[in-house]
Specification:
The complex is a heterodimer of chains A (about 110) and B (about 110). Chain A has about 110 residues and is mainly β. Chain A is built from no helices and eleven strands. The radius of gyration of chain A is 13 Å and the shape is globular. A five-stranded mixed β-sheet of chain B has the order 1-9-8-3-4, with no helix packed on it. Chain B has a four-stranded antiparallel β-sheet with strand order 2-7-6-5, with no helix packed on it. The chains are: A mainly beta (about 110), B mainly beta (about 110).
């Protein structure tokens, strides 16, 4: 069966500090990978998605970046965090074209920027 | 992706069936109907999806109207763990990769 891991579960960072969140998927190959953010009491916002190694599509221009160094690894980074970067960060994967396939979400990382 | 309409909230008793409705009158022929739920302080969880025929899985059943303008998510025996916000969304061929949730239906399960 497939499993998606995210870490850390919670993170408190000062403004201006760097960020690195990691997501890995087990039990499948060549998944589509997604990074979402959910601000408190608000909907999901797709940040990045990837259909293969080294292929990243950005949905929202901002101070975050994503990388996919391996088939089942997806990393979200920032060089300098802003207060507005606080939120619940979710990694998800799907088998292929999203309109047909379901997306499976990881447990999330709750980020607080102070 | 086409728009859906769901009731803001519903209430059920534990061990009873729950029928969560969703209207999607502007659905097109190739749109898939997906249901997700989000428990408090957790990420969204896929529940079920279908195109035209009714679908069953270990979590729920999806009943799709013959004209596909509405659907119903059926939880056969609600448990306290089923208390969540349930989202009905349509996914269109050639549409965006992102999931866009509306306000959904907040389901309360009473013991």
């Amino acid at each position: 069966s497939q499993t998606i891991h995210q870490w850390p579960a919670t993170l408190v960072q000062p403004v201006g500090s760097p960020l690195s969140l990691e997501c890995t998927v087990e039990g499948t190959s060549n998944p589509n990978l997604y990074w979402y953010r959910q601000a408190a009491g608000r909907g999901l916002q797709l940040l990045f998605y990837s259909v293969g190694i080294g292929q990243i599509s950005s949905e929202v221009p901002q101070n975050l970046s994503a990388s996919r160094p391996q088939d089942r690894q997806f990393i979200l980074s920032s060089k300098k965090l802003l207060l507005s970067d606080s939120g619940f960060y979710l990694c998800a994967w799907s088998r292929g074209l999203a309109f047909y396939n379901e997306q499976f979400f990881g447990p999330g990382t709750r980020l607080t920027v102070l | 992706d086409a728009k859906t309409t769901q009731p803001n909230s519903m209430e059920s008793n534990e061990e009873e069936p729950v029928h969560l409705p969703c209207n999607h009158s502007t659905i097109s022929g190739t749109d898939y109907i997906h249901w997700y739920r989000q428990l408090p302080s957790q990420g969204p969880e896929y529940v079920i999806h279908g195109l035209t025929s009714n679908v069953n899985n270990r979590m729920a059943s999806l009943a799709i109207a013959e004209d596909r303008k509405s659907s119903t998510l059926i939880l056969h025996r609600a448990t306290l763990r089923d208390a969540a916000v349930y989202y009905c969304i349509l996914r269109s061929q050639g549409g965006s990769e992102k999931l866009v949730f509306g306000k959904g239906t907040k389901l309360t399960v009473n013991p």
